[in-house]
Each structure stands twice: as structure tokens, then as C-alpha cells.
Amino acid sequence: MNNFWSDLASRGPISALAPMDGYTDSPYRQIVKSIAPETVVFSEFYSADGLVHSKELQRRALTHNPKEYPLIIQIFWKDPLIFAEAAKIIEGYGITGIDINMGCPAKKVVKSGHGSSLMINRDTAFKIVEEMAKAVKIPVSVKTRLGWEDHSLLIDFVKWLENAGASLISVHGRTYKQAFTGKADFTGIYSLKQNITIPVICNGDIESFDDGLSKIIHPEGQKNLDGFMIGRASFGNPWCFLPGNFEPTLGEILDIMWKHGELLWNCKERKGMMEARKHLVQYLHGFPGVKEYRNLLVHVESPEDINSILEKIKIEHTNLLNQKMSQNTTEIEKINWNCAID
Ligand SMILES: Cc1cc2nc3c(=O)[nH]c(=O)nc-3n(C[C@H](O)[C@H](O)[C@H](O)COP(=O)(O)O)c2cc1C
Q1: Average pLDDT, stretch 232-259?
Q2: CA atoms of 196 and 242, how far apart (whole Å)
Q3: 287-339, pLDDT tens digit by residue?
């Protein structure tokens, strides 16, 4: 089995950007890495079948900047041989590792036998991991949830995946049934860690690097988890991957907004500007008088538009440029994966 994940875990807790459809594209990952270079970044999920059959999707999904390493590409599907084919293509692009989605609760994904439904189709889940681990040299990992309705089957399921050749498991501390409701619960994840040898990463409602460090500690002094993954709290706040609850100044925020917009333009041109809108407004969470600028940001069509809004903010708030801004995440919590996909 590839030792990438266990070697990384032996050097200290793993801090990772969670895979998020519609968010964790190459520009987003580059922004996170430019601020917190130690972060392991996971891509949005891509259909394994799509990657096998579409050169255009391969180009779009797999083109990356080496600054993103270690870069993990996440894929979903249900046919083990298609997974193996896709894995070879991903490996050919020089990607660090491949993650299999066994946690997506979106109706159309589950109905087709992908995502979360693999938690209750263990034979298929096993074969997928086995075929992929045979097909490539890069590490194969799995991201899943606590279980379908509760976490009673988590340990058995993950042992099964470990035997098939998975070298890391990330667990979102909610069940399929919960989707995004309630609070993430890590009890089952701590028990899992005591029972398997591959590294375990926890995920769900983690707000920052320091919060992640506190969550990986076993409450009763048994083995700690190997790392944590942050998703929604990173929207407009890539600084959440820095230790010490880092608060950027307004000037730093504006610089990163420009860089993010520029990367999106370079990568996707006009389409990138449509996507830039949702990212840019999130950077101004903690900023007073944000409404006026939001209204402008949701209409940007070019890097010039972005530049003129950022210049306007600089001129109108020169006195705040060196002031630290707290990144409030209350609005972020409203966004969930079901609504993003369905
Ligand atoms: C908009 C959005 C898109 C997501 N897309 C994916 C995905 O492609 N693959 C995946 O495994 N999880 C996906 N998730 C789930 C996240 O990776 C993560 O498990 C979840 O958001 C809980 O972590 P958080 O509380 O830190 O956000 C997505 C979540 C959101 C909010």
C-alpha cells in the first residue's frame, strides 16, 4: 500500500481543505495554498465516467498548478472498472492522490448508486477501492459519513475499505439521513481510530486550524485522530487554515480578493467571473457597510470591474486598511451540499 498518508500523518496533524463541488477548483486551492502552504487540498468531485469519456472534462478538472501539491482529486461513480480507468488518467496528470466519494447525500447521486449509497453496497465499495489500488501507484483514499442512520457500522465498513487498499479515511461526522442537519458528532470517529491502522481525518463544522487541532484530541486520552478537514468555514476565509485564529487586515483581504478574481479569470475567463461573484462577497463578512459593495460584486464581469470596486473600497476606507477584520461565518452555515447539487 502507498505510504503517502501515513508518512504525512507521522509528521503531525494533517490540515486539509474539504472537497466542495462548485468551490474547490484550482483557483480556490491556489488561494488556500498561497496563505497556508502546508494544507492538503481536495478538489471538487468529478464523475469517473466523465473523466474517462471526456477529454474536455479531463482538461478542466485535472489541469492544476504544482503549487497546489499535495493535491487530491475526488471522484464519484459506481463501476469499479471505470473508477480504475479514471484513476490512471488522474495519475497521468501528476496528481498526488485520488479520493473516492462515498458520502454525497444528494438525491440524484444516491439514486444512481453513487456517493453515500456505497456505504450500504459494501461489495461494490470494496471492489472500487481494490481495482483502483491495483491500477495506480498514487494513494487511494475514501471520504464517507458516519453511516446511513447511525455510526454502528462505521468500523466494519472502514476495515473493509482498509483491506481493499484504502490508505486514508476522512469522515464527515453526520449520517446520510442527517445530510447537513444537526451538529457534527465525532464520537464514532474517535472509536474508528482505535480500530484501524490507516490515518483518520475528521470533518464537520470545524471553524479554524486551532478548532481542528482541538477536535482531533481523543476526549479520554486514547489515540488521537490524524487530522481535520475544513469546508464551509473557508468560504471567504482562507486564513482559517493558519494557526492562532489569524485575522487578516482589510488590506490583506482586498489583495486576496484581487488574486482570487485574477486566478478565476485566467483559468475560466467569463465563466470565472460569474463564479467570482459568490466568492468575492464572502470575503467581506466582517466588514462594516458591506451591503453596497456586495451589490456591486455580484455583478462583476471582468477583472477591471473587480479592480474598480476594490479601489473604491480602498479610497472610502483608507483608515481601515491596516485594521484586522474578524471573519464571521454565520451566513456560511446556511449553505449545504444538497442545495448546492440538487
Ligand atoms: C457547497 C458544498 C459542496 C460540497 N461538495 C462536496 C464534494 O464534491 N465532495 C465531498 O466529498 N463533499 C462535498 N461537500 C461536503 C464537504 O466536503 C464537507 O464534508 C461538509 O461541508 C462538512 O464540512 P464543513 O462543516 O467543514 O463544511 C460539499 C459541501 C458543500 C457545502
Answers
A1: 97
A2: 29
A3: 877 889 999 999 999 999 999 999 999 999 999 999 998 765 444 444 455 43
Taking a C-beta distance cutoff of 8 angstroms, is the pair 62, 80 a contact?
no
The CATH number for 292's domain is: 1.10.1200
172 lines ligand 1 (CB under 6 A): yes
Q: Is the CB of 133 under 6 A from ligand 1?
A: no
Residue range 132-190, pLDDT digits in tens:
999 999 999 999 999 999 999 999 999 999 999 999 999 999 999 999 999 999 999 99
Distance 16 CA to ligand 1 centre (A): 12
Same domain for 156 and 90: yes
Is position 334 within any domain? no
Whether residue 180 is found in the same domain as residue 209: yes
Is the minimum distance from the CB of 203 to ligand 1 under 6 angstroms?
yes
Residues 6+ apart with CB under 8 A from 64: 26, 29, 71, 93, 95
Question: How far is it, in rounded angstroms, from Cα 98 to Cα 140?
Answer: 5
Q: Are residues 199 and 314 in the same domain?
A: no
* Ligand 1 atom nearest to 335, measured from its CA: 31
- What DSSP element (H or E) covers 134? helix 122-135
Q: What is the pLDDT of residues 50-97, one digit of tens each?
A: 999 999 999 999 999 999 999 999 999 999 999 999 999 999 999 999
Q: Looking at the 3D structure of the chain, how many domains does it have?
A: 2
| E strand residue ranges, 197-302 | 200-203, 227-230
Distances in Å between the Cα of 289 and the Cα atoms of 37, 81, 285, 295, 325 are 32, 54, 10, 11, 13
104 is catalytic: yes
- Residue 115's identity, in one-letter code, is G
Global pTM value: 0.96
Q: Is 335 in the pocket of ligand 1 (CB under 6 A)?
A: yes
Q: How far is CA 148 from CA 1, 14, 144, 226, in A?
A: 28, 26, 10, 24
Query: Residue 193 to residues 139, 144, 224, 226: CA-CA distances in angstroms?
Result: 19, 14, 7, 9
Q: Which of 337, 339, 342, when mutated, tests ligand 1's pocket best, judged by the most ligand atoms within 8 Å of its CB?
A: 337
CB 41 within 8 A of CB 16: yes
